[in-house]
Each structure stands twice: as C-alpha cells, then as structure tokens.
Amino acid sequence: MTIELQATTEPQTHKAFHVAIVGGGLCGLVCAVYLVRAGIKMDVFESASKFGEVGAGIWLGPNALRALDEMGLKDAIVAHADGAVPALAPFTFVSAEQGHQLIHSYQLNAEDETLGIHRAACLEALAELLDPSAIHFNKRCTYISQENSSRPVIHFKDGTSFAADVVIGTDGIKSMVRQAISGETGRLGVRFTGTVAYRALFHLDDVRRMGIQADLSCNPHCFVGAAKHIITVPIKGGKILNVVIFYTDRSLLGSVEMPPNEWVTPASKEEVLENFSDCGPDVKKLLSLIETCNKWCIHAIDPPLDYFVKGQVALAGDSAHGMCPHLGSGFGQGIEDALLLGRLLRHPSIDSFNVQEALRVYDRVRRPRANMVLTRSAWAGEVYESLPCKTLHSSLAVLWEPVWRHDLQEHLATAMDMLRVLDGTRLVEQFT
C-alpha cells in the first residue's frame, strides 16, 4: 500500500507551490537553502541514512564563488573551510616525467578567487542552514510518475510517495529522476570514460618531509603525463593535501560497461605505483605516501542531454550534466543551476499554475552552458594526458576561460527577459 508522506510546512512563505528535491548532496542542499531563503516551501529526500563524508576535497573556481556570493551563501561556506579563505591562486602545470619541467602557470585576474574545501565541511555548512524537519533520510527514489497536467509524484523504495508542484532531481550521475526526463527505463545514460581516479588525502607535513621540489602547500598543481595526470589541491587551511590520481586506458573507452556497484572499489598502493612507474621522483615520492585509497571509475553523461526539464520535473547538478572532473567545475555548474532555478521560481509572476514556464526558461538558458562545460571537461583530460604535445602550452593557457569568465549577471538577465516574454504571451492569451 502506498503511504502519502506529509509535506513539511514552512512559516511565512511567499509562494503557494511546493518543491521537492531528490538528492541531499551538495547541489541538492544549495538548491534547498536558496529556495527556502526565497520563500519557497521545500523538502529534501536523501537515500542515505544521514549526511556522510563522501569524497574528499573540492575546488571552487571564480564563477562558483561569484554564484555563491550572489545567493548569499559564500560566507557560510568559507566559515567551514578550516581557515582557508578565497584567494588568488594560480594553477601550476608541471611534467610528471623526469625533470618535472614547468609547463604552464595559469594566472588568474585580479578579481578572481578560488577556494579549496573538504566536501564534508561544505555539506555541513549547507545543512546547518536548513530546518532538519525538511530533510528526509532513507528515501531512495525508484521512479517518478507525472500524468498529463497533474502534480509529479515521487515513489520511494520503502513504498511511500510524495506529490509536489515541482520536483528537482539532484540525485547525481546515477539519477533515477533523469529517467522521468529521458523516458529510458533502466538506463543510466552515462558512459565509462576509460579513466580511473585514485583519491587520497595526505598531511602536508608528510609531503614536505618527502623533499618534493614543487611547493604543493599553497596552490593547486597538475602533474601531466602520457595517459595519466595528478591533481593536488591544499585544503583545511593548508594542513591537508587532496590528491586525485588519474590513469587512462584508452583501449577500454566505450568497450566496457561498469556495473554501478563497481564504480568505486578499494585499490592497492602497488596498483597505483605500477601505473606511474615511468614518472619522475616528485611523483613517486608523493605516491609513496599512499596507505589506502579507493579507485573511482570516471563516468560522464554521454551524449549530453537534450532536455533538463520535462513538465514539472527538472534536473540539476550531476543529474543533468555529470561530467569528468578535469576542470574541477562540476559542482560549480550545479551552483549556477541552483541560482538560476531559485531566481526563476521566486519571480513574482510564477505560481503553481505557470511554474512550467520558469522551468522551460531554466532549460533553455542553463542547458547550453552546462553541456559546454561537460564537453570541455572531457577535452581538458585529453589535454593533460597528451604529453608530449607541441600545443599543450597554448591549450592550457585558455583552459578555464569560458568557464571562469562567464558573465553571471548577463546569464540571469537573459533568463528574466525570457520569462517576461513568456508571461506577456500568457497574459495576452488570457484576455483574447
């Protein structure tokens, strides 16, 4: 028997419609906090039993920090960054091979800021801004029904269901909500890229004791090599080094479908050292610090989605544009999603009767940009692993330009203009 869940009530709300967010990860909580602050009733449904420490460090680029600032969330995030503050931090590229030649230093503009923070700290900062009664754990979405013009209904594994005026899927790259958009039952719509990532956290004091030539304590670094690269980002106020070690087997590209339960598996130190045995001393010293690590099979949505929205169901974050991590911009795109969704849904002309108009504008404005970053992230990985390559320096010089130099205000203004046109058309239809 299906049990209808009770909607969480929020006092002093300004909107009559109700939003349900499926997925309580970073993107879901950013959406949730911003919607609540915009006066919109909201509930979050998370499949896990509690918020947990999944993953390691994340890196927020200038565009992500500007979007957080626009939403009034930047200070709360920074306050949980263990002493780290947004700073002008160039990204340094060096060869992973013998000699560790400096290849390129990507310089930021004077107004640019970046921030390295542990994923769990970021999640905690956001969760503290929400009423706990609006968060529902152990709620694994199995499918969404959406009959004609009726409200979409989320169905959960435990037999309960929940109806809302709008459903936002932020349930990650394995999204079940995405099936409500694509209509492809039982298919994830993602591809294994042939790349695996070994993730580890090292104490920077231990890194220094290894006598590594490069100073990894201040700025992000990327050691680039043939079919491999390593990203290092200092987090926790420069006390911890977040290390992501990428290795690509091009022969596996498109030929192997990884079962979902094998996307993340334990890996041995010996496996990592063997894959990087042709690298120079700095890389070998760094990898010698590995004690335990997990191996992540990198997947991406491929091909990019034709729609982020269907009816009153919308996708955001990795559910919409799950991408390779090579630009460190996946969460940043989720933040941009949340900002635009919030701005559109809180618009004075939007109500429960025309909320689909706001979602259609979101789809038209966000999808081209997010899919561009998705495609560019895959290209960035190919650039990193193209050593030796004569065009490597010139490619690195423009790596983040379209991502970081994005005009956020123009993006928002375009969406508002579209909404006004749609609203004007609706008013004309009402009186003719």
Structure commentary:
The chain is α/β, with parallel strands linked by helices and 432 residues long. The chain has two domains: 3-86 and 117-189 and 302-430, FAD/NAD(P)-binding domain (3-Layer(bba) Sandwich), CATH 3.50.50.60; 191-301, 2-Layer Sandwich (D-Amino Acid Oxidase, Chain A, domain 2). Helices cover 33% and strands 24% of the residues. The protein has helices spanning 26-37, 62-70, 74-78, 119-127, 177-182, 204-209, 269-275, 281-287, 318-321, 330-345, 355-384, 392-397, 401-404, 408-430; strands spanning 3-4, 18-22, 41-45, 57-60, 91-95, 102-106, 115-118, 135-136, 141-145, 153-156, 160-163, 166-169, 190-203, 221-225, 228-235, 240-248, 264-267, 293-301, 309-310, 313-315. The strands form four sheets. Strands 6-5-14-15-16-13-18-17 form an eight-stranded mixed β-sheet. A six-stranded mixed β-sheet has the order 8-3-2-12-20-19. The protein is globular and about 65 Å long. The model is unreliable at 1-13 and 427-432 (pLDDT under 50).
Which fold name fills CATH's third level, the topology of the largest domain? FAD/NAD(P)-binding domain
User: According to CATH, what is the class of the largest domain?
Assistant: Alpha Beta
Please, how many helices? 14
* Mean pLDDT score: 88
* Biggest pleated sheet: 8 strands, mixed
Domain FAD-binding: 18-376
Transmembrane segments: 16-36
Protein name: FAD-binding domain-containing protein
GO molecular function: FAD binding; oxidoreductase activity
Topology of this structure?
Elements (H helix, E strand, L loop, with lengths): L2 E2 L13 E5 L3 H12 L3 E5 L11 E4 L1 H9 L3 H5 L12 E5 L6 E5 L8 E4 H9 L7 E2 L4 E5 L7 E4 L3 E4 L2 E4 L7 H6 L7 E14 H6 L11 E5 L2 E8 L4 E9 L15 E4 L1 H7 L5 H7 L5 E9 L7 E2 L2 E3 L2 H4 L8 H16 L9 H30 L7 H6 L3 H4 L3 H23 L2
Helix pairs in contact: 1-4, 1-10, 2-10, 10-11, 10-14, 11-14
